[in-house]
Structure prediction request, 120 residues.
Amino acid sequence: MVYQEPAQLDRLFHALSDPTRRAMLKALTEDEQKIGDLARPFAMSFAAASKHVRVLESAGLVRRRIEGRAHVCRIESEPLAAIEEWLAFYARFWSRRLDTLEALLQAAPDPTLPATEEKS
Prediction:
């Protein structure tokens, strides 16, 4: 079980709440990229893209290194395991609830049959 501090989960969900950051993260699954390259599809400045990368870095989703004047980013997938675990907990929770509901509905009398008839 991957244990994640609540504040870290908050940073992860905050980082992933923005569609631009999600797109940047997806782009980094292909290969490392410079911040300027990450900014290009959004027609945004280096400074704006850098702010998005800082949020991703704060969540631990991205690592940045400086090569000369270039800021090169790569994805860090480990923090995503915490989100997967969080979601899996609720998937199991709702699955159990829906199984219970299904059992109750199957055990209930059929409202379309007259009261004197029984289900076969």
Remarks:
- The helical segments are 6-16, 19-28, 35-39, 46-58, 78-107.
- The longest strand covers residues 62-67.
